[in-house]
Amino acid sequence: KLKAYGDQLYNKYLASPCFDRLKHANLYFDTYVKKRVKFISSDLLQDNLGISDEDLKELIENVHVLFSFPDIGDPKSHLDEMIDMNVHVPLKLMALAKKLKKMQSFIHVSSLVSLYGIGEAEEKIYPYEFDAKTHLAETYVLYKQQKQVLVAFHSYPHKYVYTKRIAEILLDKEKGDIPLTIIRSGFIGPCLRDPFPGWIGTT
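and the corresponding structure tokens:
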């Protein structure tokens, strides 16, 4: 079942024009990728991300770079769902990164909206007005208990903006010796050349 799902992903993503240049340069590109990509079962909201002991051992021994890009941005999503996916999951991935023997880089894909209200922003983590971990925990518990609550987002206009900003702050706090890179992507961005020129949506 997992293999069939993996094959579907191969066919879906490798068919993207993003890979055309690489395919033209290497006739065996598809074979090359399939030999180096392995799909594993997981549940991001569970302990150890729901990864089996066997797969976890392989990750610990072999992974050099860990990408973190879980994201829920649907306005209809509940606050606790956004906190779980946009904050708790990246923190669990950081915990996993600390177990990896060959870890070289943790790359977290955030969003430009995390900089809301800052104005002209620099490439750095901006401090939160309160203790981010405590405020998040109190907000999460209160919402889980009451299922509805007027949360003080302070200068943030939306729960999505709030969770993306909090995630950046807590990852920076919890990283320890792990090299952390945060990419604040936009929804639409210009591209000069690669993978192809023009405006690219859902970047």
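(Above: one complete record from the training split.) The CA atoms of residues 22 and 29 lie 7 Å apart.
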